[in-house]
Structures
1.
Amino acid sequence: MCGIVGIVGFVPINQSLYDALTVLQHRGQDAAGICSIDKLNCFRLRKANGLVKDVFKKKHLKYLKGNIGIGHVRYLTAGSSSSFEAQPLYVNFPYGITLAHNGNLTNASELRNSLFKNNRRYIDTTSDSEVLLNIFAQELSLFKDNALLQSNDIFKAVNSVHQRIRGGYAVVSMIIGHGIVAFRDPNGIRPIVLGKRILIDGRIEYMVASESVALDTVGFEFIRDIEPGEAVFINQKGQLFANQCAKNPKKNPCLFEYVYFARPDSFLDKISVYSARIRMGTKLGKKISCKWKHLNIDVVIPIPETSNEIALEIAHVINKPYRHGFVKNRYIGRTFIMKGKNLRNIALKHKLNVNRTEFINKNILLVDDSIISGTTSIKIIEMARKAGAKNIYFASASPEIRFPNFYGINMPSSTELIAYGRKLEEIRKILKADELIFQDLNDLIEAVREENKDIVKFECSVFDGIYITKDIDKEYLSKYKTD
């Protein structure tokens, strides 16, 4: 999972790109990058490993001159952790093209081999984003006789890209002398939105980003979501063109975006993330009050922060007190997107501290958004026990995560998932919870889609093992199993 942003404006956009990436930091903590185009039509690029605030200092923002640019925050799902693979990435042929990508390509290996064998394009990294960049560049090269690409040329290139690549992806790319193009996979798995900002003189600037909250932060008005399979091209004059570039687009957004990744103040595919989480709490609260009414719950405590709204609604439904039993250090990043159990455990110790008065001799209902590897949940339950809790009941706002993800979430190995091949009671014993409650998948889906009934199906592969790109088979899955 990553965050992407692009702006075509009439005033310097370095600060706006920086501010947008700052509010998208939750989507990636590994690396950050910004690329702009200056008055001489040259790329100005700054990227490195680290958080946005650490990668960009005052001197870097001064260097990133220009009124057009793109940015990226990286959460490593494919490739290596080398800063060389930080994005945006760029190529010089057939035009100066730079690209930032959120998602994963499921056929990256065969594409990499094909690019070298048939076109002598050497992929210098292990990143599937570089593969995507070269595929796009190759398709644009078919129009190299055109001194100035037309919007239809770009849309034809995106159409060909859709036909060649598979997976979940949202892309923003910048072409020197032309402008910015953004496009989304034909299944609409990964999100991307479009916004505008009207200057005092009436000129309109345009922006694309992974989440609407990025638009809000820098004063852009949300226009709409970019549709599955659609491409939007904004030329350097600020003119906007849009076109459907896929044959049979379907809206199957990632369900886990609403559970965990997106900020609560974002809207994705016409759905308020905050409202969706409230409804998750309503559904789960009703399940608890019906099927688990025998539990003598004294207090409901969220595991901050994604589950706060969910836990508050559960407490309201079951008529129990809601308390903050964990105090969060806001200067520690999101532990799920940290690499390795040891690193996550160390970060968790610094991230959360117990408020002992809310635990001593009480029956606690702990609420989290999800349980993935179980590492964090085990430590939190252990912390609650040490703080004096009598009984610990653990509720997850999402169903059991039993299957790997190949569309941009770092869950590539089923054996890393605590629910893989295990029944509810087995999971409970590993967690050492007194009771364990999961949201039903149908309830989760209904909670999210209530605001947009046009969405018939979500991408739910981590829960149901159904891969909507239809290219994940047993042979593919076997490559990602570990001992």
2.
Amino acid sequence: MRIGMVAQSMSRANGGVSEAMHRFCEAIADRGEGHALHIFAAEDAYSREDSRRFDGLATVHLAKAYGVRRFPVAPRLAGLMEAADLDVLHVHGIWAAHGWSALRWHRRTGKPVVIAPHGMVEPWILKRSPRLKHWVSRLFQDDLFRRAATVHVLTDNEGRDVRALYPQARLDEVPNLVPPAPPHDGQHPGWWADSHAGRKIFLFFGRIHRKKGVEELVQAWRRLAAARSGWRDEALLVFCGWVDDFPEFEALVAEAQSETGSVLYAGPQYGADKWRSFAAADYMLLPSKSEGLPLAILESWSGGVPTIMTQECNLPLGFSTGAAICCDVSPDGIASALAQAADEGPERHAERAAASRRLIAGTYSSERVGRTLLAMYEGTL
């Protein structure tokens, strides 16, 4: 097959969506069946550099974008997709102008479209920028969903959210995937200091945005520091990631560090530093208010790092297998989960770490995801 994948951005600017798209390409390529993969996206500040990640996996096609920063339009995308003579087009993410390009391509060619919302139909997301979403829906998105051969959902919960908006939609469930974590090279991440030795490391990894529960997490940490003597020496909260539409974040961290002596912002971590950060952590944190299927959680489990997360992360297997501790989105709920993790002994932590690795190997493997993706595409032809 000639398979196209289109997103508003294929670079780091698109966070977990672009990472998931890259992983899907790897899973298809790993099958060794000779499928031709094409990636389409609007240009952004990182796209030329990040397109190199697809070398040997897919041909990347970039189109110049015009318009406002929050809604760039790349008029040439539809033509690039048409010239690639695709058999099927996989649309990653919604509420953006690449959906209009996908609809134009479908109208011209009559070939099937698969839509992957990537968590963007969750109620929390729908409440944000409702006027923009109303007009995007009316102008092209509702028509695109009506014409879609299938909607690719990551979880059962996402399927229910899609059906609430588009009751007649056909659904195919294919999860994100995570390859096994690379062997630890024995080195500390760049943010490590000797004073961190012996402390429990709680790691927040990924896009730093208000919807991720960051403010509530910092509040919870400050409450624990005030309530538990020795918390400064017992634990460390490390934020690794890029700040998205949250200009107050670094001041928030600085104030918490001044008060507790146990909060650090390490900035984005890529490549080896990403896996060194996971290896240094005892627990990964994601007290999020809205997610699709968070790759940061899956990557932490791949590295044997248990998690503290909300039900909104859409990974209930983490709770049932013991790979995760559940919290709600309130500061008190997060503080309670942090205290539970801090008080668990090494044997219980080792059990959680082993459960994390088993979960990735059994459910989110490249072989399983690649096979299911290709069956989904074939079912649209």
3.
Amino acid sequence: MALLKNINVKAKADKNTGFGTNANSYGGRFVNKNGTANVEKKGMHILHRISWYHTMINMPRWKFMLILLLFYVGMNFLFAFVYYLIGIEHLDGIDASGSDWVQFGQAYFFSAQTFTTVGYGHISPTGFMTSLVSAAEALIGLLSFAIATGLFFGRFSKPTAFLKFSQNALIAPYGEIKGLMIRTTPFKNTNFTDAEAKMTLGMSIEENGVTTNNFYSLELELDRINALTLSWTLVHPITENSPLYNFTEADFKNTHGEILVFIKTFDDMFSNTVAIRTSYTFNEVVYGAKFEPMYARSTDNSKTILNLDKLDAFENVTLE
């Protein structure tokens, strides 16, 4: 990527963005598409720099369920192995005439019954060591299910902004000028009110032979709406005061820049304010395009149909 040397002098750089200005210290984009900071933390033990609770709450649903399943199966295998080492004869009710695998399998299912505190009574521990291990396993099982229940509740109750952003930002016609446009829409049965949006542009600028990261607040046509029920196209008019003024398609291709988008809104379902963010690098900006409509009236004119699959749909246009 080339460095931009000549910027619009009317655009004043922001100093309170929270991002560093030394371009040589940054790698890649500032913010990932999912809104997380593109930062990898090192210099401290992983157990100290990673919150297991936040990790379990924020990880994908399939991975969360897989970890719970693997933990459950692994713990039962561990305790079944301990019971097997102590001696199957100390588990009253196990058929000792079966093969070693059959005996281990019965020890495993006894472990599962103990871990879940079901206790069918078909197999029972005899002897001090077996009783001690089964008592410890029952306690661990109770604590584990309490933690799992808390994690399930945390995942379901965590305030989340159920908004999706368009895959690309567009440079589209806007009246007699051009505008930077990004579209967002709610995708679940939620009610969003008092939505606010902010847009920030970050670019690597070479000034006096020194490369710095400069950030600019992009003024929006509308930065606040009362209700976010349909799609919302965020529009930054590219006027003479915009840092993108006189930017050509080649400038977007050859300049290292990133557009940061922040939205916060009140969610009636959570009765709380939720926030979300994303970013678009300049190579994710489509020059000369406009979004296709996402919603239209139903055939019987009784309601409005919001087509979520058209969030990213756009058509190419000619810019003057």
